Amino acid sequence: xxxxxxxxxxxxxxxxxxxxxxxxxxxxxxxxxxxxxxxxxxxxxxxxxxxxxxxxxxxxxxxxxxxxxxxxxxxxxxxxxxxxxxxxxxxxxxxxxxxxxxxxxxxxxxxxxxxxxxxxxxxxxxxxxxxxxxxxxxxxxxxxxxxxxxxxxxxxxxxxxxxxxxxxxxxxxxxxxxxxxxxxxxxxxxxxxxxxxxxxxxxxxxxxxxxxxxxxxxxxxxxxxxxxxxxxxxxxxxxxxxxxxxxxxxxxxxxx
Length: 256
Prior knowledge:
By secondary structure, the chain is mostly beta strands.
């Protein structure tokens, strides 16, 4: 793939929103108290991201985030922008409990190869298969189940991490003048078989051009060893991720 990623008490009250626990944390408008039958599943976000490198669209990620009675599921598919399913077509499924703890993470690609990550006491166990039917190689990571999954090129996983940060950030002030402390997270990058530390910080509101239209969005910075990303979220629409800029790689990610 074109890109390799090396990588508490006060809750936000902006625009009278409340937290809905899903993957790690999700915001939903206050007053939306729709009753849900036991076992029902609700789609809390879905859509696609266009991924541009040096101004050229090269990949499309389609995704959905669903919340059920026992937790949430984040599904993503990555394919070339041509629309033809290539051998590099990739899919991922991230399942999490209501508290944000990992239940299971799966990744596979059409060309062959797959992996699974499962929690085991204080460890995350990654099982990697080079091809269909091959015996998986196991690798343990001394990490709690609440560690973030930030796999290569699945940008919706960064949206989930941003929700988690906003839900638990230690903040001062009210409304537009609110300031929040940065926070560090432990994360696993399964395709690279490595654990990393990442730092997320709320910067401010910024006016950003999204597909020719100027919009006031909330900016967060996601940084770690060897990378520096800017993320913009729409705090008027359930804090959906709208854009990512990765200047070092001449890469931009934009919600369709």
